[in-house]
Design goal:
The chain is α+β, with helices and mostly antiparallel strands. Helices cover 55% and strands 16% of the residues. It folds into two domains: 79 residues, Orthogonal Bundle (Arc Repressor Mutant, subunit A), CATH 1.10.10; 58 residues, Arc Repressor Mutant, subunit A, CATH 1.10.10. α5 packs across α6 and α5 packs across α7.
Length: 174
């Protein structure tokens, strides 16, 4: 196998229900790259593969929630193909967004009561159970703690989301 084949395999493998791809460390170890310029070599590999697969509608993305690089469809192409995972239930999207915000604010985990407070709803437990069934969150029933799974990072470009939110906040302040 050449490097491109190995890299394609690593970036498209599904580790478990919530994880796709590989970390930079896994890629470098598998390709046995250990020299002092390994970061530059890694980025060259990613850039070259990205250019190679772009004509067929694929791109290489990074999931900051679990530090995994993975292959996905280009948003312009996949927007027309993919369905809304919430099936016309905006309350789930709102609950997921509030949960994501609360988890990021608290270094990865939050409580159900924090989500209730931010969401300004008395009963968000049904929404949270639906989100857990869909694989977006894990709920610890003993402590009432909620954690995000990496799944949302594969479906949303979180960096673009936060940039748009920051620009929206700036527009509101003006």
């Amino acid at each position: 196998m050449n490097e491109i084949s190995v890299l394609m395999h690593l970036l498209s493998k599904k580790t478990d229900l919530y994880q796709i791809g590989a970390t930079k460390k896994e890629i470098l170890n598998t390709l046995n790259i250990k020299n002092k310029n390994k970061s530059i070599y890694f980025h060259d590999l990613i850039a070259n593969l990205s250019n190679y697969i772009e004509p067929i509608g694929l791109q290489i993305r990074f999931n900051p929630l679990d530090s995994h690089w993975f292959i996905s469809f280009e948003p312009e192409i996949s927007d027309g193909v993919s369905a809304n995972p919430f099936g016309g239930k905006p309350r789930l999207a709102a609950s997921l967004f509030v949960t994501l915000t609360a988890c990021l604010k608290n270094s990865g985990a939050c409580t159900i009561s924090e989500i209730k407070e931010l969401r300004k709803k008395k009963n968000v437990l049904e929404d949270l159970k639906d989100l857990e069934r869909m694989g977006y969150i894990k709920i610890n029933k003993d402590t009432g703690q909620v954690k995000m799974t990496p799944l949302i990072g594969y479906q949303l470009e979180l960096e673009k989301l936060f940039v748009k939110l920051a620009s929206l906040k700036l527009k509101i302040k003006k």
